[in-house]
């Protein structure tokens, strides 16, 4: 027997939850399928626990940077208390709260592994082995996320490496930890464990945070070294061997070895789609699911004649970030409801039912030491996009609010401006506690606010936001000769940035 509902959501992380919530709020009958915990990777093994593990040491360092406060810091980090706080924020890995919330909004929960079995048909294998079949009257939304990649390094898979799950659910920090990878996960976990007092070695094939402006990765590498970590760039790992239960040996190209208690692999993610039944609808199992701006799967059987399959979050490979996935999910839930109920579809750029910002304004925060945050395009990416750009670079040393925030504050900010349109297309801030500056940059990009208009957005004094005034001054005051001179200088700086990125 098959049970019919309006919408089936496969994947109960934050992305799937948002899609289900929006569709249900419109009055549709929705069932959500989840094989593990409602709340997904982000809630239990990624965003929430990782940031909780990072926060206590970051707060301690912040106090130590302010004279008068640092004298009050007489002890070290209480690691046991940090882990207990992490346990609270992940609800001791219980998803009862999530399940109760779904019930409260009227979304059905089906626990088990869901897979597609033809157009609008989903088979769920429950934990006990029973099978139940659902058919969607209108739509199936897949939000199954990603899994960590274990690269084909000799001996690595057999060495029982950590992934982000083991790192964020740790019960006792190891004495020595090797981190393979210089991306966001590798950097953040290296920062967290260095804060615990672990002897951390980071092995990166190139620089750190390669998707950001070069100065961001350089600052984070220096910050990790300041925490006592070893950061090895251009390091190629040839072999990993677990010699005992408590020891693993990593061999680099050239024969040098690094010995640790654990090795954390943070070299990327792959789509969780191998067992999703994609082959039953003309797609390739194990692949990312390509979508258009409405998140409609572009090559699935039957989608052209009657749209029914949508892929949101990491699975569509547009922006592997929880907040962007939730943004997509809100648009999709509303769109499915509009199509089902015959309401107007707003699918033009910046319409309610599309994810336009995934092309132009994806914000990201790296909770490292220091924080590195960005939104939009880097200078190099903007030039590759064929844009005529102006770049403004300033040091936070010129910002009074930064100096008051912390003694000897160090940090850097960059704006990338499309010279032809006169609008900001990219922003990067590096420094302690700069994450809260990011939303203003995101609004400037999404709103396509002319730079000349930004001069009238007066930052309060003395706050960190004063950096915006310094950036505008670096671009040159509008309607004056120094604006043209600044544009010439910024073009030279952008060329240098491209060389550094290359």
Automatic annotation (TrEMBL):
The keyword Nucleotide-binding applies. It holds the Pfam family Pyr_redox_dim. Residues 481-502 are annotated as: Disordered. Residues 489-502 have a biased composition (Acidic residues). Residues 362-468 form the Pyridine nucleotide-disulphide oxidoreductase dimerisation domain. It comes from the Bacteria. GO terms for biological process: 2-oxoglutarate metabolic process. Keywords: FAD, Flavoprotein, NAD, Nucleotide-binding. Binds 1 FAD per subunit. Signal peptide: none annotated. NAD(+) binds at residues 181-188, 268. Disulfide bonds join 42-47. Its cofactor is FAD. FAD binds at residues 51, 114, 314. Residues 6-322 form the FAD/NAD(P)-binding domain. InterPro entries: Class-I_Pyr_Nuc-Dis_Oxidored, FAD/NAD-bd_sf, FAD/NAD-binding_dom, FAD/NAD-linked_Rdtase_dimer_sf, Pyr_nuc-diS_OxRdtase, Pyr_nucl-diS_OxRdtase_dimer. One of its GO terms (molecular function) is dihydrolipoyl dehydrogenase (NADH) activity. Belongs to the class-I pyridine nucleotide-disulfide oxidoreductase family. This is NAD(P)/FAD-dependent oxidoreductase.
């Amino acid at each position: 027997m098959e049970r019919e509902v309006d919408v089936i959501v496969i994947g109960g992380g934050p992305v799937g939850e948002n899609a289900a919530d929006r569709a249900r709020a419109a009055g549709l009958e929705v069932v959500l399928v989840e094989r593990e915990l409602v709340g997904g990777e982000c809630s239990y093994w990624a965003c929430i626990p990782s940031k909780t593990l990072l926060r206590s040491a970051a707060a301690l360092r912040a106090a130590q940077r302010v004279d008068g406060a640092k004298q009050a810091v007489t002890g070290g980090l209480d690691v046991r208390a940090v882990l207990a706080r992490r346990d609270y924020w992940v609800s001791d890995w219980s998803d009862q709260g999530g399940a109760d919330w779904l019930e409260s909004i009227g979304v059905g929960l089906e626990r088990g592994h869901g897979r597609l079995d033809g157009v609008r048909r989903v088979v769920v294998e429950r934990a006990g082995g029973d099978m139940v079949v659902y058919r969607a009257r209108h739509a199936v939304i897949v939000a199954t996320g990603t899994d960590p990649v274990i690269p084909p390094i000799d001996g690595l898979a057999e060495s029982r490496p950590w992934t982000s799950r083991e790192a964020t659910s740790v019960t006792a920090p190891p004495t020595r930890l090797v981190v393979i990878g210089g991306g966001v996960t590798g950097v953040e976990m290296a920062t967290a464990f260095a804060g615990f007092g672990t002897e951390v070695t980071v092995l990166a094939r190139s620089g750190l945070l390669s998707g950001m402006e070069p100065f961001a990765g350089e600052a984070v590498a220096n910050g990790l070294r300041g925490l006592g970590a070893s950061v090895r760039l251009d390091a190629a790992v040839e072999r990993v061997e677990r010699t005992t239960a408590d020891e693993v040996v990593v061999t680099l190209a050239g024969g040098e070895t690094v010995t640790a208690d654990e090795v954390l692999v943070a070299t990327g993610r792959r789509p969780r789609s191998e067992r999703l039944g994609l082959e039953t609808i003309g797609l390739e199992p194990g692949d990312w699911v390509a979508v258009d701006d409405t998140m409609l799967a572009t090559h699935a059987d039957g989608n052209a004649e009657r749209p029914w399959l949508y892929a949101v979050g990491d699975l569509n490979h547009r922006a592997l970030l929880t907040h962007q996935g939730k943004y997509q999910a809100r648009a999709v839930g509303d769109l499915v409801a509009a199509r089902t109920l015959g309401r107007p579809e707003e699918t033009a750029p910046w319409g309610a039912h599309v994810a336009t910002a995934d092309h132009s304004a994806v914000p990201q925060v790296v909770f490292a030491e220091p924080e590195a945050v960005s939104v939009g395009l880097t200078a190099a990416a903007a030039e590759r996009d064929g844009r005529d750009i102006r770049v403004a670079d300033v040091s936070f040393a010129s910002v009074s609010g930064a100096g008051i925030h912390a003694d000897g504050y160090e940090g850097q900010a960059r704006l990338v401006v499309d010279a032809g349109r006169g609008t900001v297309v990219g922003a990067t801030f590096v420094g302690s506690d700069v994450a809260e500056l990011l939303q203003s940059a995101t609004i400037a990009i999404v709103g396509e606010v002319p730079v000349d208009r930004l001069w009238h957005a007066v930052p309060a004094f003395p706050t960190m936001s004063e950096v915006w005034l310094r950036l505008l001054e670096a671009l040159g005051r509008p309607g004056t000769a120094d604006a043209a001179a600044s544009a010439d200088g910024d073009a030279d700086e952008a060329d240098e940035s491209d060389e550094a990125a290359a």
